[in-house]
Structure formats: C-alpha cells, structure tokens
Design a protein that fits this description.
Blueprint lengths: L4 E3 L9 E2 L9 E3 H7 L6 E4 L2 H5 L7 E6 L32 H18 E11 L4 H10 L3 E9 L16 E8 L10 H7 L8 E2 L26 H11 L5 E4 L6 H8 L3 E6 L2 H12 L8 H4 L4 H4 L5 H6 L8 E4 L2 E8 L5 E3 L4 E2 L1 H8 L7 H4 E5 L2 E4 H11 L2 H6 L1
Parallel strand pairs: 2-4, 4-11, 5-6, 5-10, 7-9, 10-11
Antiparallel strand pairs: 1-3, 6-8, 7-8, 12-13, 12-16, 13-14, 14-15, 16-17
Helix pairs in contact: 3-4, 6-7
Length: 406
C-alpha cells in the first residue's frame, strides 16, 4: 500500500511565518516519519489549511485549543443601516459553504484533527453563534469530547437588528470541552474567582465588549482588518482558566492573532494556523509588539494552593498535637452543630454519626458533598479558626513546602 507523503518543512521565514508545508519542495518523507521526528513549531504562525497542517503535528502534544471557526452566517444580501450606510458585516469568502452538510463535514474534519493532537489532559474552546454552535456541539459529542461548560459572552455593544424583524443578537456561545468524560484537565478556579472580585465566576460573561477602539486592528484604509476579531479580555479568561505557564496553546483559525497576543503576555507557548497571508502579517505585527513582563514563577503561577500544597491527613494533626482527641469542632462556626475528635482521627457528631471530617460534614448537609477542611472550625487561643488554617500552620511549621521544593 502506497504511503501518503508530504513535503519536508522549509526553514523559518521572515516574520516567523512558516510557508505552506506542501509547496515548492522536492524532498519528501512519509507522514508517519514526519510525525515522529517533528518538533512543535512553537510561537510561530503556519500558513495553510489547519486540517492538513495538524496532520503533521505529533499526537497528544497540545495543552489547550481555542478555535474561532467560520460561522457560516449564510448572508445573501448587503446589510444597510436606517440611514442607508452599508454595514461592514461578515461576508468574507472563508465564511461561505455550499450547504449545511458541507459545513458539517468541514467541522468534523478539523475537530478530528484537533482531537488527535490534544493531550488527554487538554481541553478545547470553540466559539460561535446560533448559526453554527449547535452543529459544532453535536459533532464534538459525536467525536467523544465531554462538554464541561457552555459560556455565554454577552456583548455590551452588539450590532442592532436594523430591520427590526428579530431580537438583537447580543451574545456568542463558547463551548469548553475535555477529551472525555473521565479525563483530568486544568481549571484554575481560584484565579477565575479572583478575577471576579472573590466570587465564583459564572458562565455568563457580561463585561466584555467586541474588539473596539485602540484594540481594533485597522488596515491601511482605516477599516477593520478582520471582521471577527475577538477582544483580548475574552481570550485572557480562556487562557488563564485552562492552562499554565509553559503550556502550548493552539489556535487553528488564527485570524488577527489575539490568541497569540494573550498567550505571550501570560507566558504560554502558542501556535497559530491561518490561510490568509494578510491576516498572518497583521497577527505577527501585533504579537511582535507585545512586551511581556519577565517571567517569575511566583507571579505567573495561579494554580490553587489546595492543589499544589503538600497533602496532610487530618489524623496527622491529631498525632502531632495540633488538635486533641476529645476536642470540640463546630460546623460552619455554628456552635449548635458540634462534633468531637476521636483518637483515631475520625469525628463523632452529636447524633452519633462517626466518620472523616468530610463524611461528617456531608452527613450534616443531607449527604451533599462537603470539604471538611473548610466547613469545620475549632476554638484556638486566637479565636475560632477553620481546620484549613490549622493544616496550613502545620505545613509551615513542619517545613513541608521546603521539602517539596528541594
């Protein structure tokens, strides 16, 4: 059986643009050989079709994918405002497909290519409108992705419905998915909570406007250079929530390069794939202009301490004398809900239930999940403190952080 062949990749070009992988080359190697030998083209824009180019990437090599594919808006005629000025709508050739079936086939192909290169612990974000996002979501599920959230980006400056025959389309939908139902993945919950003034971030993102003002990239005529440029604030949330410094972020529809701009600011590696040369040049200029602050792990690491701190068993606090057998615990600072610490590290509630701090807390919450470290409190010399605070004191005084770093 004849093996598929592709051209060997040419050397890097000015502006960091890697030329089309399939043109003007006489040196051929098998696709399987290329996959084994190729290093990821980090921090580069690759010119060409993402379906073809992704076939040359090593399997399971990407940490995070953000995809802003064609929406297939199906615009048939020009749009005009009430004053008869023309609306600069999305009517680019790359957004046109012969049929819904053709669009579905295209969507399945690029999502299959993305899944092959995504690490088992990686995730993918896909953004779209009502024209395409439901079709994309169904195909994601057909391919075995597991949808974690659909996030609604509610625009504060949407384009009105000038004809007055529909509601104004004031939002776009982002689907966030892992590689499978039981797959582990990155989610920097505490970072998102901090961005949201200490409150758990919800899936409706209200405060983000379409790219406008100084952020909107213009061409030499002063018109917007890309019809669907996304705001940097949107990508900031996506990348910060779902990746860590040094991770590789892929954007298969790179456009004006917003993904690369934000990834560089946050010290992630990035890879962009784009078919249109004019967009590649715009994106490269934007990224080159970014002056990221020097990398400092302590500054840019936003992982939750609960996930990175050394593990400590509740029984270790009892054995070491930080807590005492027979000492009283209070549930949620409510001194009417009391439990007593047993010598073996379990606790006993007033109604006779015995179990771990988590099991006993769940018992008092009608079997709802409970993190006992956060819900149980104890009276100490400095007042009532959570078990989490006692545990942190134990870590510091026992030098557990130093042991991990050495």
């Amino acid at each position: 059986m004849e093996q598929t062949k592709v051209a060997a990749q040419p050397t890097a070009q000015p502006l960091g643009i890697v030329k089309n992988l399939y043109e003007d080359s006489k040196r051929f190697i098998t696709l399987s050989q290329r996959r084994k030998s190729m290093l990821l083209p980090l921090n580069q824009i690759l010119e060409g079709d993402c379906i073809d180019i992704l076939q040359t990437f090593p399997e399971k090599s990407i940490d995070l994918i953000f995809a802003d594919p064609p929406y297939n808006l199906q615009l048939q005629n020009e749009l005009h405002r009430p004053n008869m000025t023309k609306v600069d709508a999305v009517d680019d050739p790359w957004d046109k497909f012969a049929s819904l079936q053709a669009y579905d086939q295209f969507t399945r192909q690029w999502l299959e290519a993305c899944k092959r290169v995504l690490k088992p612990t990686g995730t993918i974000w896909v953004i779209g409108t009502y024209h395409n996002i439901f079709r994309v979501g169904a195909i994601l599920q057909d391919l075995g992705f597991w949808i974690l959230n659909d996030v609604v980006w509610i625009k504060t400056n949407p384009m009105p419905n000038f004809r007055g025959v529909r509601f104004t389309n004031a939002h776009e939908t982002l689907i966030w998915a892992s590689t499978g139902k039981s797959a582990k993945y990155t989610f920097n919950h505490q970072a998102m909570k901090a961005l949201n003034e200490g409150k758990q971030m919800r899936s409706d993102w209200w405060l983000l406007s379409s790219a406008s003002g100084a952020e909107r990239v213009k061409d030499e005529k002063g018109d917007k250079a890309h019809s669907t440029q996304k705001p940097e604030a949107l990508l900031y949330r996506v990348i910060l929530s779902s990746s860590n410094p040094g991770d590789v972020v892929l954007d298969p529809f790179f456009g004006s390069g917003t993904t690369g701009v934000v990834a560089k600011r946050l010290h992630r590696h990035w890879i962009g794939i784009e078919k249109e040369k004019k967009y590649i040049e715009i994106a490269q200029r934007r990224i080159d202009a970014v002056q990221a602050a020097p990398f400092d792990p302590a500054t840019f690491n936003v992982k939750s301490k609960a996930k990175t701190a050394p593990k400590v068993a509740f029984s270790a606090l009892v054995e070491s004398g930080y807590l005492q057998a027979g000492q009283k615990l209070f549930f949620g600072k409510d001194q009417t809900k009391v439990a007593t610490i047993k010598p073996d590290g379990r606790i006993r509630t007033a109604d006779g239930f015995e179990g771990s701090i988590h099991q006993a807390g769940s018992h008092l919450m009608n079997d709802a999940p409970c993190n006992g470290w956060e819900h149980w409190y104890v009276q100490m010399d400095n007042g009532i403190v959570s078990l989490s605070e006692v545990r942190e004191k134990f870590r510091l005084e026992k030098g557990l952080y130093e042991e991990r770093s050495s």
